[in-house]
Amino acid sequence: MARPFLLPPPSIAALALLAATGCPTSDVGAPCNHGHLDAPQVPTVTFPALACDQLMCMYPARDEPPVAPCETAADCNASGTSSTFECVAGRCEVASTHVLSRSMCTMRCDSDADCDDGDPGTTCRTGFSCARVQSLGDFCCEKLCVCRDDLDEAAAAMREEACSAGNLVGCCDRDPVPDACGP
Question: Dihedral of CA 78/100/158/66: which sign?
Answer without folding.
Answer: positive
